[in-house]
Amino acid sequence: MLLYISCGGSLSLSLSLSLSFSPSPFLLFSEPEPKRARRSLSLSLSLSLSLSLASSPIERKGGGGMEIDRAIRESTDRRLQTKYNNAIYVIQRAFALYKLEEVALSFNGGKDSTVLLHLIRAGYYLHMDKTDFCNGIQQDGLLNCPIRTIYFESPCAFPEINSFTYETASHYGLPLEIIRSDFKSGLEGLLKEKPTKAIFLGTRIGDPNAVGQEQFSPSSNGWPPFMRVNPILDWSYRDVWSFILTCKVKYCSLYDQGYTSIGSIYDTVPNTLLCIADSSSMEENFKPAYMLLDGRLERAGRAKKNSVKSENNSVPSNGLNIVDAHQSASYRASIIIVGDEYLFGTFEDKLGTALCKKLHDIGWQVSHIAVVQNEIDSVADEVERWKSTDDMVFLLGGLGPLHSDVSVAGVGKAFGVRLAPDEEFEEYLRQLIGNNYTGDRNEMALLPEGITELLHHKMLPVPLIKCKNVIILAATNHEELDTQWDCLLELPNINLVRTAPFKSKHLSTMLSEVETAQVLSKLSVDFPDIYIGCHRKSRLGPFIISFVGKDKTRVESAAAKLSQSFSEGAFSEADCG
Ligand SMILES: Cc1cc2nc3c(=O)[nH]c(=O)nc-3n(C[C@H](O)[C@H](O)[C@H](O)COP(=O)(O)O)c2cc1C
Ligand SMILES: Nc1ncnc2c1ncn2[C@@H]1O[C@H](COP(=O)(O)OP(=O)(O)OP(=O)(O)O)[C@@H](O)[C@H]1O
Ligand SMILES: [Mg+2]
């Protein structure tokens, strides 16, 4: 369903002029709150085009976007200026490529779309500025921003987000098009009703949906055809807040209450990293979003989709359901060991086994352990194979500055993303190894773009690398593995969930495999939820049968059933540590 709401703006010059003087929308807006950080705005008298218009009605009403351009140019933040210039370039390219009525801004009141809105206002002002000078048109008509603005309104949105979106649209005269259906069908309807060739989005590298996107990316297969324009794709969390604070633009009040990335009311809470410890108060208080130091943790307040699995281990009588119940309570991991030395037989891998034990101890199943060569393709193939079937994939080895250290590149290839320099990781490496790199850029700081999360912990000299559900461990011995594992268990939001531990029982017998085979085969059918494994240390020594599962009673009854099938004393309990 599509609703068109005119908020005081229009594509027509005269209409936008008359409506922009209506005072009511502006009353909704106050100056930025005092607690927000302010930067002094020095009024330099440089002969910039924007300053030459400083006293025009555009500036007085604040609708023309020139104040944004001026705030950035007057700031001393060189990084922000570069990011701004690049974003404006992308926006101007879009305005040059498409007719104004064919482009739309996808705006949802979030911090990224707030930045995007103001960049578009500035880009539009600069674009029109050039056009008008060419055409000899006066500037005074550009009080509002007449870019079509689409908002997918949902009953699950925070009321603060909803009202901020409406107020902002009203304030800047954005012609708002409200869509009350899911993104895909909403866009199908939109494209049928109005020719829409390009849509501006506030997507940033690091967003789950940014993988593989460029600044201009056609919509995905299966989506209606349009160009996704992502002017702030390369902006960091810090860049977003530098822009908002430098330009002193209003943002949704939730960001002053500890929210750092906003989804629905059902999956978003304030970011605990901003919680202010105050034992005297019963209430939890939070610092504003711009105080978050590590932007990589901006989504720490967002619940992970599908992260909560059923812990219900109850066993129904029907065997099929037993399997389902058992599987739903288990997480699966795979382990990939990278190293030619293990394949030559020169060294024996012990860390993989130790990691299996650690995973087993937190109730996870290890589906697979592989040893691969130091080749990007070997790593990529193996990661590719397991990343979608297992909850987590662990890589051991192949991390470092050597030609044979290919784990990071292999992971990037498996996800189809390129490697890009990671400033923060580079800084850690610099602190650890000084400036003794080969070449002018540290190759170890090239990480898979858009999917890398650095896992920080005070016990780790360098954060661990996580790409989606793949974690690259940096351990070379048991002690390091123990430390890294303990850190992983303490870190929030990485989905390494402790589940019900496995229970096991081991029986030892001097009976032969031939004598026990038939009974064991029937047991495995009767107890599909229990792993029944056999092991012997020597051909002539005792034969060990293991029963492993999450339900202790089921483990016990499977073991008891085996014992009862043979003469008394044929089995004794074995301790397999
Ligand atoms: C205007 C617009 C265009 C989109 N186009 C695509 C697309 O082409 N392909 C796609 O997979 N998702 C597309 N999406 C969905 C987004 O990738 C993403 O799921 C959405 O922004 C919600 O993010 P969240 O799941 O983190 O809340 C689009 C969303 C919007 C609002
Ligand atoms: N409901 C929506 N209506 C319109 N556009 C949307 C909607 N949800 C997402 N988008 C578009 O997708 C972009 C990315 O969404 P995302 O949630 O990552 O960023 P944000 O909401 O702007 O900021 P935050 O990360 O703080 O939530 C938005 O900037 C906006 O362009
Ligand atoms: Mg959001």
TrEMBL record:
Associated pathway: Cofactor biosynthesis; FAD biosynthesis; FAD from FMN: step 1/1
Enzyme class name: transferase
Keyword terms: ATP-binding, FAD, Flavoprotein, FMN, Nucleotide-binding, Nucleotidyltransferase, Transferase
Extent of the signal sequence: none
The EC number(s) this enzyme carries: 2.7.7.2
Pfam name, any one: PAPS_reduct
Name the record gives this protein: FAD synthase
